[in-house]
Design a protein that fits this description.
This protein is an alpha+beta fold and about 150 residues long. The chain has six helices and six strands; from the N terminus they run ααβααββββαβα. Helix 3 packs across helix 4. The longest helix has 13 residues. The N and C termini lie far apart (about 50 Å). Bound molecules: zinc ion (ZN) (3 copies). The site of one zinc ion has 8 residues, from helix 6.
Length: about 150
C-alpha cells in the first residue's frame, strides 16, 4: 500500500523500528480515515489486540509518531489532544475541520478557499504564509435538523 510505504519511510528516517504496537496504532488510523482519535480511544482499540499494553506506552507511541510526522495532533473545543494520520506530503495543503458544538462531531473538507487571502496578506502586509489551520465551529446538519424540528412551525 502506497500510504503504508510513506509511513515506513518516515519511521526509517527517524531511525525507528516498526514494532507490532507501532504498526497496530498506525493501522488503526489508516483504517479510520477522517476520524480524530484521542490517546484514550487509541488505547481502548489497542487493548482489543494487545491486552496488556498500558496507557503510557500508547502515549509514548502516539507522541513519537507525531514527532515523525506520521500522526498530526489537533485540538478541538473539548480541549483534548486528538490525532489523525498524516498522509499529505510535507508542505502540502492540509484539510480543514468543521466542529459541531452540540454533538462534537468533526467533519473534514478538502477545499481551500484561502489562496486569495494569502495573496492579499503578502501584497498588503508583506507576510508570506507558509501554512494555516482552520476550524469552523457551529452546528452540524443532524443537530440543525433536530433543532428546527423542535421549533413550532
Ligand atoms: Zn482531520
Ligand atoms: Zn452535531
Ligand atoms: Zn486551507
Amino acid at each position: 500500500m502506497a500510504q503504508m510505504s510513506s509511513v515506513y519511510r518516515r519511521l526509517e528516517e527517524g531511525a525507528k523500528r516498526l514494532t507490532p504496537q507501532r504498526e497496530l496504532i498506525i493501522k488503526l488510523f489508516l483504517d479510520r480515515p477522517g476520524q480524530h482519535l484521542s490517546a484514550e480511544e487509541v488505547h481502548q482499540l489497542v487493548r482489543q489486540e494487545f491486552r496488556d499494553v498500558g496507557m503510557a506506552t500508547v502515549y509514548r507511541t502516539v507522541e513519537l509518531l507525531t514527532k515523525l510526522d506520521i500522526l498530526r495532533q489537533i485540538r478541538f473545543n473539548d480541549g483534548r489532544a486528538r490525532y489523525e494520520i498524516n498522509l499529505e506530503a510535507a508542505n502540502m495543503h492540509r484539510h480543514h475541520h468543521m466542529v459541531c458544538v452540540r454533538c462534537n462531531r468533526v467533519e473534514e473538507f478538502q477545499e481551500d478557499l484561502l489562496d486569495q487571502l494569502e495573496d492579499r496578506l503578502l501584497r498588503e502586509r508583506g507576510f508570506r504564509v507558509a501554512d494555516h489551520e482552520l476550524k469552523f465551529y457551529g452546528t452540524c446538519r443532524q443537530c440543525d435538523r433536530k433543532q428546527s424540528n423542535m421549533k413550532p412551525s
